[in-house]
Amino acid sequence: MAEFPAERWNFGVLLVQGVARRIANELSSERLVLPFLYAALGGPVLFAGVFAPAVIVGRLVSQLAGSQLVAMARRTKLFLSATTGLSALVLVLLATFADTLRVGWLPAAFIAVSVAWGMSNGFGALTAQDLLGRVLGERARVNLLFAIGAASGAGVIVVTLISQWIIGLDPAQQSWDDQVHLMWAGIAMLLVSTAAAGVLVEGDRGMPGVTDGAPAGGYLALLRDGLRTVSRLGWFRRFMIARVLLVTVELVMPFFAVHAATFHARTAPSLTVLVVAASLGMIAGGLVLPRIGHRSIQLVLSASCGVAAVAALTALATHLIPELRSLYAHAGMIFLLGFAAQGAIDGSTAYVVGASTDEQRPYAIAVASFAAGAVGVGLALIAGTIALERGAIVAVGIMGVVNLFGAYYVTTLPDFRTESAP
Questions:
Q1: CA–CA separation, 322 vs 135, rounded Å?
Q2: pLDDT tens profile 192-241
Q3: How many C-beta atoms surround the C-beta of residue 308 within 10 A?
Q4: Tens digit of each residue's pLDDT (9 = 90 or more) over 254-275
Q5: How far apart are CA 403 and CA 380, in angstroms?
Q6: Domain range annotation of the chain
Q7: What contacts 179, CB < 8 A, 6 or more positions away?
Q8: In this structure, which CATH number among 3.20.20.70, 1.10.3430.10, 1.25.40.10, 1.20.1250.20 belongs to the domain 10-200+220-412?
């Protein structure tokens, strides 16, 4: 059994770093906050669903390009610190200038920011997930991932309420300044995350020796061979299909956010209520899902898809019964989606980190992100077109059907705890 020196210290450090980073992510969420603010500024609904896959595209570009860099580096915690600074810069630019743009420029601006945000977050996630496999044992990793979810859910609520209290509450009118305060709070949390990453105790990565059979061509050849190797793994090919299905759990929330903004964008404090609801869902997921995860990660993923499907059915019910279209009904759906996203994101991370070796892990993370991002962009554009022509509720219903299939498929993934990966 592998030993992990300073595991307890690193658990605490990664908990603080991960909670602060997750709070910042939720306060600037491409699934909820960005679509809501975009709709509040009057942006065309066609592009509202593109922000989440645009972030995924940014992630996959940075992860594909950086996976070999992470694999070659003996220590990587400085990478983790640097990415939070870039993320903060991206948010500062959006929070400062978005309300000065004309409506026609909003799609380009929000998509560009989403891609840049995804690139900085993607490389940071690649580094963080690689560190998880090197400084923590398997049980500690599962506990950490869901502890971050639960603690960050509570943290989002606290930071959101404090931020709302600082700016005050005007029920008569909700301006850009009244909504964007959440993003500025997220920037502050990124600074906390940067500081925490700097005190991680990290040992050198075990580097394989260079042999006569080593590939020639330098960095790009090593990158190509690493990506090709993981793509040939049987368990990984099946996981990529599951990852594509799981991305629909993340993609559906923007359509709920746009639908909510249509009715409640000028209802104070509507965005705060939705963010708190998503955070409560994260807390519930962080408390419930680890118990399932210690038995089977596949069950966590299946439950996440099932809960997302329930949220879609709830949306259909409220669509058919207009009297139920209240802010708190939307908040209930967002709660379910927050729970589902918690399981889909952290469950898929736990699976790929646990199933891959130290040498495979950076490439496995990168290829899985590429598959999710490439398919996610297409699905988002299709769903956005459907939402524009037929209404957001139709797109939500289609995603719900995909979620039901995903709930079944993920249960067929091989169990890396009892099987050796082929």
A1: 52
A2: 988 888 788 776 655 544 444 444 455 566 666 766 777 777 788 888 88
A3: 30
A4: 777 776 776 666 665 677 788 8
A5: 15
A6: 10-200+220-412
A7: 36, 37, 40, 271
A8: 1.20.1250.20
